[in-house]
Amino acid sequence: MEFNLLIAFTDNANKAFDRDQLLDMLQDGSWEAYDRCIDVLAGRLRGKIKTDQKKPALIKTASSTGYVFATTAELA
Predict the structure, then answer these.
(1) Which has the least CB within 10 A, 6, 9, 55, 75?
(2) Is residue 75 part of a domain?
(3) Which residue, 72, 74, 40, 39, is CA-closest to 58?
(4) Within a 10 A sphere around the Cβ of 52, how many other Cβ atoms?
(5) How many domains does the chain fold into?
(6) Angstrom distance (rounded) from CA 52 to CA 55
(7) Which domain holds residue 27?
């Protein structure tokens, strides 16, 4: 599910999503997720792609919204 979350983030870079929206993107019927599952998955992703855990560079928490994959990188 971490990979699926990463895909959801990269396909929608710089767009903030709340937990419910992210759950909708990830659910495939094979597992029952709760809103805090997103927090766990985002934390694991941060740990794997981190540069500084205290200052997440890519997966950021959006105040009172949820999460955003913040990047300025563009495909060539």
Answers:
(1) 75
(2) no
(3) 72
(4) 8
(5) 1
(6) 5
(7) 2-69
